[in-house]
Amino acid sequence: MMKPEVYDHPVKKIELIETHISCVLLTGDFAYKIKKPVNFGFLDFSTLEKRHTFCLNELSLNRRLAPDIYLDVVTISGVPDKPVINGSGEVFEYAVKMAQFPQSAQLDHRLAAGKLNVEHMDAIARMVADFHQAIDIADDSMDYGNNHAVYQPVEENFIQIREHLDTGKYDETLTMLQSWSQSAFVKLKPVFEQRKHDGFIRECHGDMHLRNLLWLNGGPVAFDCIEFNSQLRWIDVISEVAFLVMDLQDRKQPQLANRFLNSYLQATGDYAGLAVLPFYLCYRALVRAKVNALRLEQKNITQQERVQAVADFESYLELAKVYTQQAIPKLIIMRGLSASGKSTVSQQLLDAMGLIRIRSDVERKRLFSIASSDKAANEIDQGIYSAQASQQTYAKLLELALQVVSAGYSVIIDAAFLKHEQRQPFQQLAERLRVGYLVLEVTAPPAVLRQRIVARKNDVSDADLAVLEHQLLHWMPLHEDELKTAISVNTEEALQLDSLIKVINKN
C-alpha cells in the first residue's frame, strides 16, 4: 500500500499513520483507512465481513458531520504483495476513502501551535449542540441509556486496563476509581433513568476529542466517530460533551474547556446534565487511559512511544482522580441596569474561574420558545417582559441555579436583579445549600449606559433606551442586610479581573 501503483489516481506522497485499531494511508488528495483484524471485546474487526460492515457504518455515520470528507468504501484486491484499489479479482480487504486534510487542521495540532481560542470553542459548542438536537433519540424499546448500558463500559475500562497492562503499581488508584465509579453510579441511578426518559440518550459521535475535530474552511468539523460499537455511540449527550471537556483539561486548557461547556449549556439549556458530568468526565479519562494501555501492545512501537504511552496513562489516571473530588460551590448573582456590563464581566469571570453562567436574556426567550438570536417585543411590562413573565423567568433561573450548585459547580446568574424580591430567593437557596453567596453589582454612569444601548448590535438583550430610562427611574439600592455579601464593579473603569477574583474567593 506504500506504492503509487496501488491507487487509481495520481499520488503525491504516501505516508502511514498507525493506531491500535487501524492504518491510515495519506496519498496527497485522498486518505485510506484500513481496519486491523483485531478483537478487543468492545471492538471486533476479526473477519473481513465485519470489517466491510464497519467500513460502511463509518461512511454513513461520519457523513452526518463530515460529508465532504467521507467519500466511499473501496475494495482492495490482487494479492497482499501487489494490492490494487478498486481492482478486479477477489477482495481481501476494504478501506474507507476520505478527502485528505492537512494535519495542521486537527485541533490538537492547532492547540499546540497556539491557534485555538475561546471563539473556536463557541463555534464548536454550537456545532455540537445543533448536532445533538438533530440526531435520533433512544426510545423506551431500546436498551441504550438503561442502567446496565450506562455502567457496562465504565466497568469494562477497569477490566481491559488490567488485562492489557501490568497494573501492580496502579492497583490502589484503580481500586479507588472503580469504587468511586460504582458509588456514583448507584447514587445517580434515578438521574440516569430520568435522562433516558427525557430524551438525552441519542446516537452521538461517541469519540469527540481534539484529535477527531478539525478547523476547515472557517468552521469546525468532527470526524472519525465510533462505528464499531453502537453502545458507545448511543449515549447521553453529556457523555459526549465530557470527552472534549476532559481532553482540554488534560492538556491544561481549563479556560477553553469551560468556555466550550458554558457555550454548549447556553445553546441547549441542559444544565440538569451537570449532575452526571463528573461521572462521565472520570469515565472519559479512563477511556483514554485504556487506549494508552492498548497502545503498549501495538507492534513496532518505539521505546520513546512506549515511554510516552505510559506517561499519558498515568496522567489520565491522575485526572480521573481529580473528578472524584468535589469543591464547595458558590452562588453569585449579577445586579445592574441594562448595558451596565453584566454579561461582559460575567464572561471574563467564568472564563477565568471555571464558573457556570446562566443568562436571563437567553432563558427568558427559551422559556417562551423564542430563539436567543431573535428580537422580541420589548414594551415595558408587556409580552415576555410582563410582570408575570419576569416572575416565571426568575423562577426558572432559581431552578437552574439549584441544578448547577447541587451538581457541585459554582454558578453566576446574569440578570438585572433590580428588585429585592428577585434576589432574596437566591440568597435563601444559598443558605439552604450552605454555599457561598455574593451579589456582584455592576454600575456605570447613566450617560455611559445610554451610549452603550445606542451602540449595541447583535445582542441577545432586547433592552432599548425606553427600558433603560424606566430602570433608572425605578432604581432602588440594595437592602442594608445585603451589603455584606455585595461587591461593586464600575465598568466605566478598566476591569481589574485578578483583584476582583481575589475578592470573590475571599467571600
Radius of gyration: 26 Å
Please, how many domains? 3
Average of the residue pLDDT scores: 93
Uncertain regions spanning at least 5 consecutive residues: none
N-C termini distance: 64 Å
Q: Note the overall shape.
A: elongated
What structural class do you assign from the helix and strand content?
Answer: alpha/beta
What can be said about the biggest beta sheet? 6 strands, antiparallel
Number of beta-strand segments? 15
Strand order of the largest sheet: 1-2-3-6-4-5
CATH topology of the largest domain: Aminoglycoside 3'-phosphotransferase, Chain: A, domain 2
Mind telling me the CATH superfamily name of the largest domain? Aminoglycoside phosphotransferase (APH), C-terminal lobe
Give the CATH level 1 class of the largest domain.
Answer: Alpha Beta
Strand content: 15-25%
Helix content: 40-55%
How many distinct helices?
16
Q: What is the CATH architecture descriptor of the largest domain?
A: Alpha-Beta Complex
Descriptive notes:
By secondary structure, this protein is of the alpha/beta class. It has three domains: 97 residues, Phosphorylase Kinase, domain 1; 217 residues, Aminoglycoside 3'-phosphotransferase, Chain: A, domain 2 (Alpha-Beta Complex); 177 residues, Rossmann fold, CATH 3.40.50. A six-stranded antiparallel β-sheet has the order 1-2-3-6-4-5, covered by helices on one side. Strands 12-13-11-14-15 form a five-stranded parallel β-sheet, with helices on both faces. A hairpin with a 3-residue loop joins strand 2 and strand 3. The protein is elongated, with a radius of gyration of 26 Å.
